Amino acid sequence: MTPGSTNSQGRQLAALSAPAVLFTVAMIAFPVVYTIWLGFHAFSSTGEASFAGGANYAALVADGEFWNGLYVTFALYALSMVLQLVAGIYLAMLLFHSKRLSGLLRSLLISPFMMPPVVAGMMWLVILDPSLGAANYILVSLGLPASEWLASPTWVIPTIALIDTWQWAPYVALIVLGGLQSLPPSVYEAAQIDGASPFRIFRRITLPLLLPTIVTAAVLRSVDLLRFFDIIYITTQGGPGNASNTLNIYGFRVGFEFFNIGYASALMITLSAIVLAAVLVLNRLRNAVAW
Amino acid sequence: MNDHSSPRWVHWLNTLQLTVAGILILAPTVWMVLSSFKPSFEVTAYPPTLFFQPTFENYVTLWQTTPFLSYAVNSFVVTIGSTLLGLAFGIPAAFAVSWSRITWPAVLTLAARMAPGTLFLLPWYIMFREVGLIGSYTALILSHAVITMPIVIWVLLPFFDNIPRSVFEAAQMDGCSVTRILWRIALPLVGSGVAVASILAFVFSWNFFLFSLILSNSDTKTLIAAAFNFVGEGSTQWGSLMAAATLIALPPLALAILVQRWLVAGLTLGAVKG
Asked: Which residues form the ABC transmembrane type-1 domain (chain A) (predicted)?
């Protein structure tokens, strides 16, 4: 091949990815820069922009609703993450020790997370209705106290975390199962010959070897959990009061319900920085546990 | 590790736990479908009933009281349009990234999938309003292509990577251009990848809520955005609410089950080989 043809090959390849790159720049890069610009401006009632410096960010620090949003975002994130990792790993171990994964079982496992989150929200809204829902009927029948679920400021975060766990723990399980299946069987055999108990094998061998897979699942879920929107907006819209008002919901409402464009932009930039930081930290962690 | 050495009761205990987990996963969806077929006076009965005379009453009510069909048409137009656009941009990009090993275009599109949608929704709203496209299919399809394009690229990458280089080199010797190799040689070899990518793109575009909530109007509202109104109006109309929920969930679930075997590897964006 002559150098000339390599050159033209490079040009042809660049031309093939150009539409995707240009589309991303037009739809994402430019709007993000625009949002950053908006975040440094104030808008009059007629929509005229004036430079405001860091005023929007200063307002953010003084805004109790922002700190509440930050707390709700991280409480929901931590609780959902722990619940779905534990449930997902548990489910993956069960699947791993049973027979081959049948098509029927796999269909059952993917059904929660392939369903629109909005539909999941509608469905659970009916099941968790405090007075007529099936969930409270089951609790009361078992002699347990009924719960206010989504209507209770105390229970709304755990309830939303449970709904999200119902939807996404099977996804975590399928990822972890993939990791389990790729582990070399020889490590178990050696441990079994040494007479280690199943629990010890799990803690000392399986879990450490699985860590890279688990962290991968955590990264994929983090991105969704930090910008949690659909289920909250369909069920509580941030309520009761502001008990489930995550940063994403709050930013959305400031922008599209109160039309405070500058302030909403500052909120969204802050949330995006948090998502970016979380992904970077978790990627670091993934490299640290890689083997 | 299907250890045949473990005692029988261990096997039964495992099956029992798996059954309980399966019931927990399936029960809410079954309850939704059951409720949609209940007579309206029985949907809100307390204690809830498990056995009843099934009826299509709720579906008829939904049909008569809401423009359900036009919402569904909107959803299909936006979803299919954005899936096609995602394929048109994504297939050549995935091929180029796989061939050249220059990965930044793929990473760039992924960043779009990771950022909170609200981050670009505000500028989009301003930009689309400027050019009079608020409420248009164009705005909805463009915004949803931001979801579909990275899915197409990342699902197809491993498929293109699996084609032996010698195939391309032989074609180049015969004087084929890179573009011609993509359409005539590589694409026919990754047919199943394109199928999985299309279905995943369809599902995630169909399910996406935020963009149509803001960028659609009453004529172009998608089912998912309309669902928000159903919840507001339907606080006592559980039957038709669950009928709507069932119908909205049907297309993505049916499609996903069709390709369930290849789905998981695609969903992790290549992070795990399933």
From this structure: 70-280
